[in-house]
């Protein structure tokens, strides 16, 4: 281990942490699992990049719903780029080491951009609420400058709340095992390897979960209650179905993001030995949204689907 001296005492930091693939699987299976992982990364990158480029180049899509979708796709691209290449390298080569500071950097980006994704999902819920409940005021409420300010607030909140995480991990000593339980670095996973008091880490981690994902999910749920009330109040059965159909893609994105996140948080905080369910939930939480979101929005959003088909037809011609 690498000893890092401080003024008051001695901190013990490992030179590297060891990442774990899927517990109980041999190296041969890990090697073959790298291929679908690379396919997922290529699919996530291509899908999200396509959505961002379509929205950026088509002026008719410069509306709140699509601008928020472009932000969501950008966040998903960053999350997949931070996690999947290192995981593929782990499965391909079997090299488990990740340098201490590099692990903290990866952890920071994972938590920061996860918080941003949660906030964007909330902004998209608010957009759907205003569009369905107050359709005549939608354009005046969610103007381009307002959308830009929401995006800046999302970025700022994610970075500010996640910024202390690497520093409160660096103040700990790690004199036990340096083997993590996942294929990437998470705050709660690194924290458990410490042999010193982790009260600050536990409290701050819980604060982030409750103040970011907890508050965001509550407001998203409240938005959908109001949306359902507005939809059920429409006189036409066809009109209410068409109105709620605009929320299906967003609802899928919310479920794909929050269900694994809540499960992972509960499993970590309830304690107990690390099991396969820890690893599966963590992988689903980080790997599934970047792959699923562009597919769902590409299939369910008519304007995006039409432009993707036109793009392929132009390339084929």
TrEMBL record:
Pfam family, one: 7tm_4
Principal location listed in the UniProt entry: membrane
Gene Ontology cellular-component annotations: plasma membrane
Keywords for the protein's UniProt record, in alphabetical order: Cell membrane, G-protein coupled receptor, Membrane, Olfaction, Receptor, Sensory transduction, Transducer, Transmembrane, Transmembrane helix
Entry annotated with the keyword Membrane: yes
Protein name: Olfactory receptor
All residue ranges annotated as the G-protein coupled receptors family 1 profile domain in the record: 47-297
Family the UniProt entry places it in: Belongs to the G-protein coupled receptor 1 family.
Compartments (UniProt record): Cell membrane; Membrane
Gene Ontology BP term (one): cellular response to lipid
UniProt entry tagged with the keyword Phosphoprotein: no
Source species: Sarcophilus harrisii (Tasmanian devil)
Upper taxonomic lineage: Eukaryota, Metazoa, Chordata, Craniata, Vertebrata
InterPro entries: GPCR_Rhodpsn, GPCR_Rhodpsn_7TM, Olfact_rcpt, OR51/52/56-like
Transmembrane segments: 29-54, 66-84, 104-126, 146-169, 202-227, 248-270, 276-297
Membrane topology: Multi-pass membrane protein
GO molecular function, one term: G protein-coupled receptor activity
Signal peptide limits: none
